[in-house]
Design goal:
Belongs to the G-protein coupled receptor 1 family. One of its GO terms (cellular component) is plasma membrane. One of its GO terms (molecular function) is urotensin II receptor activity. The chain is an all-alpha fold and about 160 residues long. The chain has a domain of about 80 residues. Helices cover about 65% and strands about 0% of the residues. It has five helices and no strands. Helix 1 runs antiparallel to helix 3. The longest helix has about 35 residues. It is elongated, with a radius of gyration of 25 Å. The N and C termini lie far apart (about 70 Å).
């Protein structure tokens, strides 16, 4: 088997036609994309996201305030702790929505590489934290229903 350099694809910056792969073209001649330009989706999408964000933030802050008052005042058990952590995960996720709305409005990412990494990390962290907390709550509720006397003795030990 011999080496044939014509079988190797060109590097991303080299175009066999003499152009550049870095130039972005839409193919049809117009500068609009799915969510860009004068799209009918951009405005309503931003409004819906903000409408979801504001009541969600208020609800999660209220949940943290009420649940932390119960936990501090008396022993509310692990369910109260789960609820506080789930509300905090929700708050972290909802804090990323304004960045998404800003991106849709500006049609560009304005927050550099650090913002991209931070937003993606928060998104993944809150998703996994919520899944973990809901699983832990479900397992604890199952344990209380399936073995109520044993669960009662175990809850009194801490």
């Amino acid at each position: 088997m011999s080496y044939n350099p014509s079988l190797i694809s060109p590097s991303p910056r080299d175009d066999p036609e003499g152009g550049s792969f870095l130039v972005e073209t839409s193919g049809g001649g117009d500068d609009s994309n799915v969510l860009g330009g004068d799209s009918l989706v951009t405005g309503p999408l931003g409004a819906v996201l903000l409408v979801m964000c504001l009541p969600g933030m208020v609800g999660n802050i209220y949940t943290v305030a009420v649940a932390s008052g119960r936990v501090a005042g008396c022993s509310a058990g692990s369910l109260g702790v789960y609820m506080i952590n789930l509300a905090l995960a929700g708050l972290l996720y909802l804090s990323t929505i304004p960045f998404v709305v800003c991106t849709y409005s500006a049609h560009d990412w304005l927050f550099r590489d650090v913002g991209c990494r931070l937003l993606l990390s928060l998104d993944l962290f809150t998703m996994h934290a919520s899944i973990f907390l809901l699983t832990a709550m479900s397992l604890e509720r199952y344990w209380v229903v399936a073995k109520p006397l044993r669960a009662r003795r175990a809850s009194n030990t801490y």
